[in-house]
Recover the amino acids of this structure.
């Protein structure tokens, strides 16, 4: 995805103009018409996460400018989020009880590169794979058609 488009999308998420689809961990997630863009019904507006990603994208753009790359031609090649170890605190409850109060941080891996102008689909057209069994069945039916 283009870096400028990603920044525009995250700004729209912050302003609740576009929603982020929740496909996997979607228990209790409400439905919204903005999810139709992604062919699903459940979506939310994770403002805090969007702000963190916007900071990362801004940092990546600054790094690209420092390396004298074209900022308008940047593309997000790879992005990945992993769980980080939980940070533990305590919360004090009624009747002298103590419960854990944990944060859920994450590691975000982001690779941004300059888009190649020659980046065109030069792949050969896909050939439909046929199993041995279907090849034998087709050969037998072709022989029957000849007789």
């Amino acid at each position: 995805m283009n870096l400028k488009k990603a920044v525009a999308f995250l700004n729209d998420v912050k302003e609740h103009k576009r929603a982020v689809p929740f496909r996997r961990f979607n228990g209790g997630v409400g439905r919204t018409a903005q999810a139709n863009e992604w062919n699903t019904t459940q979506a939310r507006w994770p403002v805090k996460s969007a702000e963190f990603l916007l900071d990362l994208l801004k940092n990546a753009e600054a790094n690209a400018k420092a390396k004298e790359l074209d900022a308008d031609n940047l593309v997000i090649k790879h992005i990945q989020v992993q769980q980080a170890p939980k940070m533990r605190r305590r919360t004090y409850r009624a009747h002298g009880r103590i419960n854990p109060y944990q944060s859920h941080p994450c590691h975000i891996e982001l690779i941004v590169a300059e888009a190649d102008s020659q980046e065109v689909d030069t792949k050969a057209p896909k050939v439909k794979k046929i199993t041995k069994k279907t090849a034998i069945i087709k050969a037998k039916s072709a022989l029957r058609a000849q007789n």
In short: The first strand starts at residue 20 and ends at 21. The mean pLDDT is 93. The chain is about 30% helix and 25% strand. Residues 3-81+110-118 form a domain with the Ribosomal Protein L22; Chain A fold (CATH 3.90.470.10).
